[in-house]
Amino acid sequence: QVDLVETGGxxxxxxxxxxxxxxxxxxxxxxxxxxxxxxxxxxxxxxxSCIGARDGDTxxxxxxxxxxxxxxxxxxxxxxxxxxxxxxxxxxVYYCAADFAGTPAWCDTYYSGNRLSQDFRSWGxxxxxxxxS
Length: 133
Prior knowledge:
Structural class: mainly beta
Number of helices: 0
Shape: globular
Oligomer: single chain
Strand content: over 45%
């Protein structure tokens, strides 16, 4: 189990940008896959993106592809979700999650087609993102 803390949420106007951070203060995230999810009021939690342990291993669902970018800074033990061209329908609580299965994690363990699995064992507390004018 990894303690994860998300920061960077807030209010932004449509078309604006935010960058979320997901940090572990204890366990190194180097070999973990990091998933990003969101849950809007009255809706199920939705998978958005994944970044694996190896450079270049990323996955995005169609709902955010081209607008959101996930990255990681291993020196800071932090993963990021850069969100551009935000829309009101992006309003939700955003979560990061981490998982490690004993070997450096690949994102393809966690997605099938356009769907990101929620089989990540450690979750952050969430950060609110509100997009409105």
